[in-house]
């Protein structure tokens, strides 16, 4: 069998620092279990590469990356000096473009962001039930609001009209909704294995052990809102064991703050999912702990991409201060994903997750540097 | 001078119950101060009207309403029996349509939702600084994502494509941004009057007494994101006394939860503003206290519309249990708005606000019915 190959792209700012800790943990796990994994480091996409070559990554970047089973990305974006508004504003759309290029190029049609408030993570909500937050937000990652169609008529004049088209296909809608139901089932099965259950009630009074909540804005964005709803209602019939629920995106955001513990799986469009996943990240303790997975679950020739939800934090870059926790949770998720082919790799992912979670629970509140946290977790893994 | 005329549209569910208390308070204030205001009650828009006439309001509804200076709306929406998913899902787009019709018909191009966590209101965030939340979210209310352009190609087939066009004009962009800066100035002036100040730092290190934060998603929705940003940068030059700030909508939602006390005025598009205002409503205590103002500040012949942010709450309708606080804050906002023509009316609005706030502070946590709360506030006003 071929070994599992990982493309490591540290990126900008704190990216290289947190990625270094992830690689140390991977190396520890590889040595310990004799895992058949290897990794290659790329200097792109990055701001540094851009400054030298005039583009964030080489023209054949996607072709190079496609040979790997997964991409582990640190963070992108170098906003330039904070006190220069022009440089501060400009580069975002350039430096973050590779993210969108990879999602599109590798048809990573699922963006999956789990939100669980683990012991030790910062709790922003006053209600103690926040401890029970355990949801998975599944974002459609291939189309919708992000198709980049549109333009600016009479640009720069008082009569300017800017348009942006949202395009949704039934095919992409069906697959993301079906993926949501499958994940709901998987989560219910995992809970049973762990000896815990959750109960959700359907509108017609039945109880189920999992739930999918579909988020749209169908009362204002009617066309795709209706298509999403019809697809959801149809596909839900194949999953009578999963409770269903609808929310409008504004109400969903409110309920994420008021009663996030009531959600299980949430399916949303590209933009609405972007918003909901950032909210979900806060609910699970903030950017310091939130992983993000861009997945292509259907085409084995396409690598999936794993990145922490946080940015490149240029204000603390290069100082060894960044918390690598989110990056390490991300690496754990990556191993679990890659473990679909190799159970030993999946087990290593679980082991990494447990080690990071244990470290978080024990050391929350203590001031430690990037390397110190990485070392503590590597030590845990070596035991 | 002509008297100030208010069209009262109680609507559905708890709408009529909370509107009744608002009218009692208005009547108390009218009698007390000899205010020159009068109101007329309309049975539409409502579900009941729809059942009888097959439409939520008469064909000439807007023409009838246009004769008034303001519209005070209770709540719309009757979702039908909760245990019937079909009826539960259907009527939203029908019963809430009049909201959008009025906003469009009267060119209510500003939707303004203040968020202040008043004493007695429910605090969802753990951080005590939540008490300092004091922001005003200004939502573009006339175009953008809400133009209802688009359609469904090959509807209902596996090859379906649904499109939704977003249309933004520079004219509407300029006016909403300028409105935001004006409000920032007004708020700073009001703070000075009340003997308190806030300090905001600009990117180039100056300090200002107010701030406008522009929210877009310009790294993904490029065309109007860029136009908004250019308009913002240009107009901000006319307001060197106001600090400016940019956020992407996903980051803005996160920061609303992490540090909402850092915001002053927030300007956003129709959909993104819809989401942000719902979040802002939670931050200020939830739906029980949140007013919503749909304003046309430019055309004196067009009535503005005032509604609580909450819905019609059919589950508790008809039982006298609904909290009228949001409705009363909404009525206070309406009087303040109408008071632009008549200072006595503005003063009455301030008086109503103070009475509702005092009642909230004193009685938070006590269980009282709709009428009981209304009576307590009327009594306060009569003193
Ligand atoms: C950088 C940006 C384009 C991206 C997105 O909107 O998808 C980011 O916010 C994310 O969620 O990964
Ligand atoms: C009812 C709905 C169309 C409306 C909107 O999206 O504008 C509501 O959510 C609001 O915020 O007033």
UniProtKB/TrEMBL annotation, chains A, B:
Pfam families: Iso_dh. InterPro entries: ICDH/IPMDH, IsoPropMal-DH-like_dom. Its cofactor is Mg(2+); Mn(2+). The keyword DNA repair does not apply. Residues 5-377 form the Isopropylmalate dehydrogenase-like domain. One of its GO terms (molecular function) is metal ion binding. Keywords: Manganese, Metal-binding, NAD, Oxidoreductase. It comes from the Bacteria. This is Isocitrate/isopropylmalate dehydrogenase family protein. The lineage of its organism: Bacteria, Pseudomonadati, Pseudomonadota, Gammaproteobacteria, Pseudomonadales.
